[in-house]
Amino acid sequence: MAKSKYEYVKEFETDDKMLRNVYVLVRIDGKGFHKFSAAHDFAKPNDVRGINLMNHAARCVMHELDDILIAFGESDEYSFLFRKSTDLYQRRESKIVSTVVSLFTSAYVYYWNDYFTDLKRPLYPPVFDGRAVLYPSEVEVKDYFAWRQADTHINNLFNTSFWALVEEGGLSPKAAEARLCGTDSKEKNEMLFTEFNTNYSKLPAMYRKGSVLLREQIPKDADKDAIIPTLPETLPGSKSAKVVPVPEATTTTTTKTTTTTTTLQQSGPDPISEPVSEATSGQSTPIIVNDPVALVVQEADMQEESKESRSNEGKKRSIDASEATEQDVAKGPTGNKNASEFKRMKKGVVIDHIDIIGEKFWTGRGAYIIAPEKKKKLRS
């Protein structure tokens, strides 16, 4: 920038560089979304279109900003955790927060019509605000996400009970609120079950647990903007979302054709009208379209039947998504035509709806989030 006599005005800028070697948590929140959801006729208590649009916008943010380790979303808010060593914008708070908020908001508007197909664009611009919070250690990070997921459960249980009383019970909003005043979670669950034949624990985990975005292995040829569902209940239903084809050997699919694109959906229960069973461990296994792990496991079974092809291997390896490397897939039977399709993997952003309260997540799929980082030279 050329020097000028007016350049002194830069001295009025505040230095807002954030402390180093701590986690940076950016949370965005919708402003006036009660009014916004009413104006756009969102379904109550949960609108799957709105939730998946939020998830899509959050994924766009993670694709753009590689230093984000994990994101968690519920209702009209999303939290993004940056690694300790991030040097994005020299850790300037205003730059980081404004970038996350603007990226999220622009993606929300850009992909709006993919989910709200009857409305080309929002009736008026949605607004999100943002803030940054610093957490010194993994303890606070775990407790933060536990807090947000607990909040998800509390809010969703109340909203589910409230709208059941209003829409099915015929109460006015004021009467429904008075009915729920002072009740605990056990009483709300009992009311839903006895009066409305609703087993809250069988409702889609997307509503009860929120959405978790993780960085995990996906097929290398997958488009970064593709919607890659991980559970039957999270199929986004976007009219223009691209999905990776599913081989018949790995999963059964049904095909839906529109005038603009063709999407493949995994067969199974309807994500909204039918409950989805969960593993007893509380952690659901992600199902990725064109799941390379399923393919490799299938190949391993075929290889086991053929002792000659495995004579040079002493042990059968345990294969999971993080271990499905190029060599693993390349060792499959030569007769499998689909093997070459999964030779290369890359880190991608996947979505799931799992428990993140407690150590089971943080020592499993979330272990990479709090793993020690390599020391980097600081900029002078």
From TrEMBL:
Gene3D superfamilies: 3.30.70.3000. Coiled coil: none annotated. GO terms for biological process: tRNA modification. Keywords: GTP-binding, Magnesium, Metal-binding, Nucleotide-binding, Nucleotidyltransferase, Transferase, tRNA processing. Its EC number is 2.7.7.79. Residues 140-242 form the Thg1 C-terminal domain. Residues 250-263 have a biased composition (Low complexity). Residues 304-320 have a biased composition (Basic and acidic residues). Residues 230-285, 300-340 are annotated as: Disordered. Its cofactor is Mg(2+). One of its GO terms (molecular function) is magnesium ion binding. It is an enzyme of class 2 (transferase). Residues 6-136 form the tRNAHis guanylyltransferase catalytic domain. Belongs to the tRNA(His) guanylyltransferase family. PANTHER family: TRNA(HIS) GUANYLYLTRANSFERASE-RELATED. This is tRNA(His) guanylyltransferase. It comes from Linnemannia exigua.
